[in-house]
Design a protein that fits this description.
Blueprint (H helix, E strand, L loop, with lengths): L7 E9 L4 E11 L2 E13 L1 H15 L5 E6 L2 H16 L13 H12 L2 E6 L7 H19 L1
Parallel strand pairs: 1-4, 4-5
Antiparallel strand pairs: 1-2, 2-3
Helix pairs in contact: 1-3
């Protein structure tokens, strides 16, 4: 990966109605002139945090080769988890500082593995603040929820 490489710009979102409850996730991937929209969901009992994690997992797993990625999320849980907390959790055998099992460990491990395939820079963005691709990711998450419920 060269430093002049164009990054893949990804915006992700996820949520449930109600929380916990059925959920959806969405992702917008942009690379040069290419745009890909992705969404999915869970019709059963899930959580906002699980859906917020699924969006970057699915986006990163969709990339076919190692890339420089600028990943934007409105979830501080996702950004702090992957940039700070996972290192301690992994060192402690996936236990929190309070010696409790880490919630969503399956998805944290999957996100770690997906991130390791790329050079990912993580950005937090304020949700519903007019950032077009963040708003689109929110629309896609809602679509993913609706599609999951329709199945």
């Amino acid at each position: 990966m060269s430093s002049t490489e164009d990054p893949v710009i990804i915006h992700t979102d996820g949520g449930c109605r109600p929380n916990p409850g059925p959920g959806g996730w969405g992702a917008v991937l942009r690379h040069r002139e290419h745009v890909r929209e992705m969404c999915g969901g869970e019709p059963g009992e899930t959580s906002n945090n699980r859906m917020e994690l699924m969006a970057p997992i699915m986006a990163l797993e969709a990339l076919k080769r190692p890339m420089l990625v600028h990943l934007h999320t409105d979830s501080t849980y996702v950004r702090n988890g992957i940039t700070k907390w996972v290192f301690g959790w992994e060192r402690n055998g996936w236990l929190t500082a309070a010696k409790q099992p880490v919630k969503n460990v399956d998805l944290w491990q999957r996100l770690q593995a997906a991130s390791a395939q790329h050079r990912v820079e993580w950005f937090w963005v304020k949700g519903h603040s007019g950032i077009a691709d963040n708003e689109l990711a929110d629309v896609l998450a809602t679509r993913g929820l609706q599609q999951a419920l329709a199945l």
